[in-house]
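Re: that chain you flagged

S.,

Sorry for the slow reply, it's been a week of failed gels. I finally had a moment to sit down with the sequence you sent. For the record, here it is as I used it:
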Amino acid sequence: MKFLLHRFVGRNLNAAMSKSQILFVTLALLSPLVCGVCQQRIFAEPPAVPCDSLRAIQFHKICGSTKSGAIFDLGRAGAFDEFWATCSSVLFNGQLHRMWYSSVYDNRMGYGGIGLATSKDGVHWKLANDGKPVLRVGQPCAFDDGQVLAPEVLYDGGVYRMWYTGSRIDWHKSGVCFYRVGLAVSEDGIHWQRAAGGNPV
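Prediction finished late last night. Pasting the structure tokens below so you have them in one place:
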């Protein structure tokens, strides 16, 4: 290390530098070595999964009980999910599946929202909240006053948190809709309050 310090500051090491300066330079020279070890430990590649194991994974499509064969179909005529039922987020607590899902993407087709359905087996679903959306569009002039969709829900044991996409009711003249992400919280998964003052996160 003294050889490295001499090369770094010259032969008159003690005359040129104080003890604190020598310590600083020593740490500076050691840091790449230490960081290299840390990077190997922290950023090490995860163990590779054998290709044979991946090939062994198979998925089978399950035919649902709806007319279309889906496990969850569109809502009744006039309902908020009459045109779309998509972008689901499902949580399972060991006894019950809860699925939050989107209705329409395009607010020019009418106001949609985010709905909730429950199931014991993940195949046969019942609408919750009397078939009404659990999260509706925001107040006028809010970032999500045109549409709310694509929920992603997590539960930490006490609070449900839903990140969702919101869009304005006013579209750009080019025909492009403005999408941003909002956050809502709930204790039961049905009654939601917007976080961050209703602003996008």
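What I noticed first: Residues 1-17, 19-43 have pLDDT under 50 and may be disordered.

Talk soon,
D.
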